[in-house]
Amino acid sequence: MIDEAVRQIETFRCRLGDPGVLTGAADKEPYERSARHAGGSAVAVLRPGSEAELAWTVKTLSELQLPLVVQGAATGLVGAATPTPDGRQWVLSTQRVRDVLEVDPVNRCVRVSAGFRLSDVNRVAAAHGLVLPIDLGADPTIGGMIATNTGGARLIRYGGIRENLMDVRAVLMHPAGECVGSAKGLRKDNTGLSWAQLLCGTFGALGVISRATLKLHPVQQQSATALIALSDVHAAIGLMCELEREFGEMVSAFEGISGAALEAVALHQRNVPVPFATMPAYAILVEVSSAIPPGQGLDLEAMLMNWLEKRMVAGELADAIVDKPAQLWRIRHSISESVQACGRLVAFDLAVSRSRFAEFREAAVHVVQDMIPSARICDFGHLGDGGIHLNLVVPSDLDTATIEVLRDTVYDLAVFQFEGSYSAEHGVGPYNASYYERFTSPLTRELAHSLKMFLDPRRALGNAQL
Amino acid sequence: MIDEAVRQIETFRCRLGDPGVLTGAADKEPYERSARHAGGSAVAVLRPGSEAELAWTVKTLSELQLPLVVQGAATGLVGAATPTPDGRQWVLSTQRVRDVLEVDPVNRCVRVSAGFRLSDVNRVAAAHGLVLPIDLGADPTIGGMIATNTGGARLIRYGGIRENLMDVRAVLMHPAGECVGSAKGLRKDNTGLSWAQLLCGTFGALGVISRATLKLHPVQQQSATALIALSDVHAAIGLMCELEREFGEMVSAFEGISGAALEAVALHQRNVPVPFATMPAYAILVEVSSAIPPGQGLDLEAMLMNWLEKRMVAGELADAIVDKPAQLWRIRHSISESVQACGRLVAFDLAVSRSRFAEFREAAVHVVQDMIPSARICDFGHLGDGGIHLNLVVPSDLDTATIEVLRDTVYDLAVFQFEGSYSAEHGVGPYNASYYERFTSPLTRELAHSLKMFLDPRRALGNAQL
Fold first, then answer.
1. Which of B10, B189, B232, B345 sits CB 3.0–4.6 Å from A421 for a disulfide?
2. C-alpha neighbours within 13 Å on the C-beta side of residue A320
3. CA distances for A56 relative to A47, A92, A172, angstroms
């Protein structure tokens, strides 16, 4: 390590103490990994222990003109929080920024520092009968969730982060170390530009999120869950419309699962039984739920059973399993890992309008089968939001060039032909930055650039697009 | 009228035709009014009849360097859509921008041009069993609703415009006439800066909204409504928490009404009976509702009656009336007009955290009574969102200077002492622009200014703050 870096590390250690600066290879390693892609290498990991220390750290990094990458729990899937392999970046971890985690039951909100995790919030909220109803496989930090505008499986009912965000505070690179935004916890505040909305879904490119206020919701007191076997995805779309018409605001999840994805679970998760005798072409996981407890007239399980029976009689369903919600959700939450275990993965995080979902899926399947006949198409996702994780298992010796062409073709299909999104919920980072360039209009990129020049003119927040 | 203006009018008439250019005093008059304040005067009113005509009109106005004010239905309460009194501005009305009004029941959304009104959308949506659940006294255009991020009485359940906005298209002043944004109707799209979120709640300062896609919700199939008399506002806060805990997602309105506001209705609306024998100190209007029709076990009216009875027995309520929803909502919707009829109005549109609402209201009442002992404090508002329309009836001969001091004092109390908002849902326009200056941090104003310089460097969109 060169002398200059040693001096810089000493500067940080003076203020942040030993737990605030990690330099040993073993200590740094967990911060150099990536959840899905290759890891990187960091000069050191800085872990400020409060918002004030975070502001000081950002200011010092800026004064020393050091390149950095901000990291929460590093659960993101586009590499935005992973240091580059060249070893030049400093990881700025927000994991110890834990000044405040305070549930306000009257305002039905939580005031929370960026470093707390989703599970931390929900543990504290549960004591008040409240929940932050973002349902994910991972357990990210609140700061990371805001930066990537996390969605998840219950967005159909509650919205994602953006819809539940009351305010955000962040530390800027320019003016270096300055804290902006607010922590007022207002449901209504129509007074101009919203820092919360600017910082949500811009991947940390405009500032380092330090804390936020989020709406909470009453915990569900009853729910009914069914796994439904269907002959094809068109049938799923019809059921979705019927279910929403009949259960209205009670619909809290409508997930689509391909037969191949179910097979992957059956194959690789011995402890997660898939309850169908024959594997269906397509399946949906449906959840209806309410904060009204049983015993007051509303019986969602009986209503869902009744609804399914009618559909069975009408021949609309191949099969339907109503089981303990936890059992059925385990299947859904095991898919990603199971598909990955099948072989070499090529993953997509796409969304289209729900009214074009079935047509898009067919077209995408055709495209993949044409290009790579041996590919296994294990798609699944948040059908109720038009989301589809088109995850493919491809031959392990498939050349990179073919995969690149496949990616371009599928993305073009989704964005140009079906007016969809090339990143429904994972955001933009190094691993899909070229698609940001391809699919973002020049004017939008220029506007983003002008914001970036205003708030981070040296582009020190390096990994984030904009 | 000077020759130059005559030539310019001819240019517009050539493209937009006679219905597209209004110059006669009587024709212009409806576009020169303001819903609450003094009107203004326009060179002419331009009414393009499509998005393409809108783009051409914006481009031409920009090329001719003419100052303009964009107007939807002119129902706003801060003067942002009213021309200035100097007669120099052109009104650009979006009322005839009505290219598309299309409900997509599968995607559960509406694609709609800026010039359609809320009532137009809901008429078409109702045919599909769907609704855009923004509840307002006025009937604004969709473009105006997005620009001001309209909230209303059912935000507690559905959110406001921001939470229901899928995308927006807008015409820019710079590059003049360029159309930005999208009309994809995606529920998930995490690919960087969102034009929809930038244009929502920035009062038209960044561009002219031409169309949008909004989420729709299933129409409610049952609801129960109660008007509840209370001894004070503290009791209301307690009830709000209990109601949300027991009725969860079914709570669709929780409105607060002062005794003085109820008295104003009783006095000025002969056709709207206020059902209390003695006027309470404070009242709340509660609505619970569901898309699940009666007859399936859920009976919200019985549940609400039962809930109220228990509270009556416990002595928590002074009185409670369960009546036809329409009857009770008429009381709520008559308040604004009734208070205005009582005399000279000084109105505030404030919000604070719900957990500080009661304390804030007490403090505000003290401040007003201290300064103007004869003022009648007829406050009401969306208590469930922390919103309070602190509307005061003051002596008709009260001097302007005193009113200005009163305004400053109340706003300072709300914003500085109670971390609230000086404009909860009405937005910012000429009538509260000085408070934007006072309460917005210099850095936020600078950032807004840099966006403004990028998108409207000549500041042609004149009335809008930023």
1. B189
2. 22
3. 12, 12, 11
Report d(CA B247, CA B301) in Å as an integer. 12
Entry pTM: 0.96
Kindly report the backbone phi and psi dihedral angles of residue A344, in degrees, each rounded to the nearest multiple of 5, phi listed first.
Answer: -80, 125
- Report yes or no: B448 at the A interface, CB cutoff 8 Å: yes
How far does the CA of residue A437 sit from the closest CA of chain B (Å)? 11
Q: Which residue of B has its CA nearest to A244?
A: B218
Which DSSP state fits B459? Answer: -
A52-101 residue pLDDT tens: 999 999 999 999 999 999 999 999 988 889 999 999 999 999 999 999 99
pLDDT score of A323 more than 90: no
Chain B partners within 8 Å of A434 (Cβ): none
Chain B 326-355, CB below 8 Å of chain A: which residues?
351-355
In this structure, what token pair is assigned to residue B178? 């360029």
DSSP E strands, A37-148: 42-46, 68-71, 89-93, 101-104, 109-113, 130-131
- Cβ pair A428:B191 closer than 8 A: yes
Could you check whether the bond before residue A175 is cis, i.e. omega within 30 degrees of 0?
A: yes
Render pLDDT for A404-417 as a digit per residue (tens, 0 to 9).
999 999 999 999 99
ipTM of this predicted complex?
A: 0.96
Q: For position B210, what pLDDT does the model report? A: 98
Task: State which amino acid sits at residue A21.
Answer: V
Q: Tell me A201's DSSP state.
A: T
Rounded Cα gap, residues A96 and A81, in angstroms: 16
Query: CB contacts < 8 Å between A and B, how many?
Result: 282
